[in-house]
Amino acid sequence: xxxxxxxxxxxxxxxxxxxxxxxxGKLSVEADCDKSYIGKIERGEKTPGLKTIAKLSxxxxxxxxxxxxxEYDINKED
Length: 78
Fold this sequence. Notes:
This protein is mainly α.
């Protein structure tokens, strides 16, 4: 999987989390995920599965598609 898309997803998650005023700890409780795992997602080190993405969006009170609202060139290779 492209490292760039993981980094962009993580950056978007961090932006949305901070816009809601959530710490990583608060999001981890609300989404039932480990705080360190959220940090790894935000740094682009881990790629969450669909169930985790759904938990994150629900915890943030947003639609799943908002987590993917970033530019990414599908033709670019790492």
